[in-house]
Design goal:
single chain; elongated
Length: about 130
C-alpha cells in the first residue's frame, strides 16, 4: 500500500529527509552523536520516491523515519499538522485500520493523506421585510 502526500507536505518531508541524510554528526555540540547508515539509506530511498510522484510505501519503518525527519530535522517550528498526519498513519498501520482511497494504474492501493479543498459559492441576499 502507498501513501500520497500533498505537494506542500512532500516538499517539507523532502527538506527534512535531506537534512537527515546530510547531517554532520562530527560537529561540536551536534544534537545527534550518530545516525545509522541504514537510516540514511532508507531516508534517501524515501526522498527519491516522494520526489518522483509524491508517494511512498506505507510501512512502519518508513513512517518512523518520516516522523524523525519532520520533528527532529524540520526546524525549530516544524509542521505539527504533518507530524500528526504521520502519527495517525502509524496508528492506522499498527492496528490494520488503513483504508485506501484510490488505486494506482498498476492496481496498488493508495491512501491520500491530504484533504482537497472544496469551494462553495453561496450568496446570501438580505431582503427587507414587507
Amino acid at each position: 500500500m502507498l501513501v500520497k502526500f500533498s505537494s506542500k507536505d512532500t516538499a517539507t518531508l523532502c527538506k527534512g529527509l535531506n537534512k537527515l541524510v546530510n547531517y554532520n554528526t562530527s560537529k561540536p555540540l551536534s544534537r545527534f552523536s550518530d545516525i545509522p547508515q541504514y537510516m540514511r539509506q532508507k531516508a534517501t530511498q524515501i526522498m527519491a520516491e516522494l520526489k518522483q510522484d509524491g508517494m511512498t510505501k506505507l510501512e512502519i519503518d518508513t513512517l518512523k523515519i518520516l516522523l524523525t525527519a519532520t520533528k527532529e530535522f524540520g526546524g525549530l517550528f516544524y509542521d505539527v499538522a504533518l507530524f500528526q498526519k504521520i502519527q495517525n498513519l502509524m496508528y492506522q498501520c499498527e492496528y490494520n485500520q488503513c483504508k485506501p482511497n484510490f488505486k494506482t494504474r498498476e492496481g496498488e492501493d493508495i491512501i491520500e493523506e491530504f484533504y482537497k479543498l472544496k469551494y462553495c459559492s453561496t450568496v446570501v441576499y438580505m431582503v427587507p421585510r414587507a
